[in-house]
Specification:
By secondary structure, this protein is mainly beta. It has two helices and eleven strands; from the N terminus they run βββββββββββαα. Bound molecules: manganese (II) ion.
Length: about 160
């Protein structure tokens, strides 16, 4: 067994200990999946890969990637996200502020804070996202909450990009 195929079966870990990066921001033994169940929430042109999920870790590391023009769901929840932009440029909304983001920028999403990522620069936008394994279900804005957000011209412009 080569070092590359050795794993930790028996300790609850099924994935090889080292999984190589492959072209186009994918990885060996990592499923390239839909972002969420279709129709469960608004989103566009975004994929999900779970990079690290281990019974002995309290967190998971995921990689989300949007095509140009894609976006994640506008949502909030009690759990926190630790995000690193991995590729591309775009914008994100955190709370009541829209930020331009680019490679290796770090973004913290605090509890119960509206957030969304948008690939606004005509290129894919990919980010790593660290979360708790045990976490609450995201909440979507009500129409009133969405209108309150859109009362800010910068947020209204962001949401229509
Ligand atoms: Mn979220």
């Amino acid at each position: 067994m080569s070092a590359d195929t050795k794993n930790a079966k028996g300790s609850g870990r099924e994935a090889p200990l080292v999984r190589r990066a492959t072209p186009d921001f994918r990885w060996e033994s990592v499923a390239h999946m839909p972002y969420k169940e279709e129709g469960s929430a608004p989103f566009k042109a975004i994929s999900r890969q779970i990079l690290h999920s281990d019974p002995d870790l309290a967190g998971e590391l995921r990689y989300f990637e949007m095509d140009a023009g894609g976006y994640s769901t506008l949502e909030r929840h009690e759990h926190v996200h630790g995000v690193m932009i991995f590729r591309g440029h775009g914008h994100c909304l955190v709370g009541d502020t829209v930020y331009e983001v680019g490679p290796h920028d770090l973004v913290t999403i605090p509890p119960m804070t509206w957030h969304q990522f948008r690939a606004t620069r005509g290129e894919p936008l990919g980010f790593l996202c660290l979360v708790n394994v045990r976490r609450d279900k995201p909440q979507l804005p009500t129409e009133d909450e969405l209108n309150a957000l859109k009362a800010d011209p910068a947020i209204a412009a962001f949401l229509s990009r």
